[in-house]
Design a protein that fits this description.
seven-stranded mixed β-sheet; 4 helices; alpha+beta; 133 residues
């Protein structure tokens, strides 16, 4: 799918691995979060479980988008839970450094599932400065 490839190469994907660190995709690589986890050895059912329970997202065009969920039904909302927000706060300084973000960087804490390959609608906009612990 050309749209998915275009999106994947324009954004920089990351996965927060609680108590481990950040898994960050190289720049301009066509890779999904699912494939990133498979590449480190998780099987398909573990990938789905992991992505359902842990924050992940991407940085693109000066904006951070972070979410959790795996329900692929169009219109489903992938939003951070309270626990997910705490996990993101633990890694926000690392995300700030990796993506060279500042206090005014827009942060979205959810997406609405759309068509595969399309850029999904981002929701719950805030600023990075509100995420500091």
């Amino acid at each position: 799918m050309k749209k998915a490839t275009d999106f994947h190469t324009k954004r920089r994907a990351f996965i927060i691995m609680p108590d481990v660190g950040l898994l960050v995709a190289p720049q301009q690589i066509d890779i999904s979060h699912e494939q990133m986890l498979k590449n480190i050895g998780l099987n398909a059912s573990d990938v789905i479980k992991f992505l359902s329970l842990n924050p992940r997202g991407y940085f693109m065009n000066g904006e951070l988008c972070v979410y959790m969920g795996y329900d692929m039904t169009p219109g489903a909302k992938w939003e951070l839970t309270a626990a997910g927000k705490k996990t993101v706060q633990t890694y926000i300084a690392d995300l700030r450094a990796v993506f060279n973000m500042n206090d005014e960087t827009p942060v979205y804490t959810g997406v609405i599932v759309g068509q595969i390959g399309a850029v999904w609608q981002k929701i719950n906009q805030t600023k990075l400065k509100s995420w500091e612990i």
